[in-house]
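Chapter summary example.
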Amino acid sequence: MSFKPRFLDRSTPPHIVTLILLAALPALTMNIFLPSLPRMTAYFETDYGIMQLSVASYLAVNAVLQILIGPISDKFGRRSISLVGIALFLLATLGCLLAPTVGIFLGFRMAQAFAVVGMVLSRASIRDVVPTDKAASMIGYVTMGMAVVPMIGPAFGGLLDEAFGWQANFWALLILGSLTLWLTWADMGETKQPSKLSLGRQFREYPELLCSPRFWGYSLASGLASGAFFAYLGGAPFVATEVFGMSPAKMGIYFGAPALGYFAGNFISGRYSARIGVNRMVNWGCMINAAGIAISVVIFLTGAGTAESFFGLMTFVGLGNGMTIPNATAGALSVRPHLAGTAAGLSGAIMLGGGAALSALAGAILSPDTGALPLLWLMLITSVAAIGAIGVVILRERQLGL
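The structure predicted for these 402 residues follows.
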């Protein structure tokens, strides 16, 4: 099948608008309500650390689901699994709105992770129909469009919180999710013929990926580079409110700084990946990511750190991730092209599983007395490790003569 979509035609591959919405839904679900965390903590009469688990638990369940979604979609196809996942997300979102206690809320919040089918299968659908370098470019364009959503999500969420309360963020997710479900039903043609292998056999294909150093290198490069951003998600709301004394609306505006860089990084990926090559793009992205955090660490060590320097330099984290993630994803999916769905799920699970741990750790190590430095050190360590991961891929390909 060639990638020649016709909008709202289910006999062709999905249009880029549909792919962007599918990929944007889990990203928006992850961050739209972050400015509301302090008020949600008061509403549920709990501790901030407990409420912050709404980020880490969402990422953790995302990681588990991605391990399952990849092989299941290789077996049954991308379209049907996308529709089921989004429908379950809508039910979970309604549960978040009606939850009477923090425990019930966190349970439904974890179930919102079914939105991840959009992120996994939008990328797998692209790889189904186009070759590696072109896939990196297309994934870059999709995630560039997707980046607009988390860019405005926290700012929009902060305004909704101040105007209507924290529940308004989840009503917004319910409306967007319903639109995405309809558009997926109307536009998303099947890009993967159902596998003749049994579902058990699909899962037994995992060792073929896990034994590949290149797959691990690409997945860890993506996971560690994005790990800096996930640590930011877990710790930045606390830094903004407790260290810099920001209101929810102001924090929402500042919080979107990485998304500005992410948008630019994805544009660069979409424009130049096919020409420059996947490995060089990942390597450059990882170095930009680490450089921005390192500069911020130096500024805070000198005592000159401010909210503007902290959030402003996070644009480099976004820029680096925008260059790294699309290209590393395309690389991971191309190590074993016949297992594209499985690879998309597994690499995504590695990324989000690590992200969940780093998000929870970031929330745990911060206090009003520590300031922002513990978070910045955590981000710097993971970003430097990402450079080493893509170095493994480059070395392995030289050994294989690729």
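To summarize the output: Residues 20 and 145 are 6 Å apart (CA to CA).
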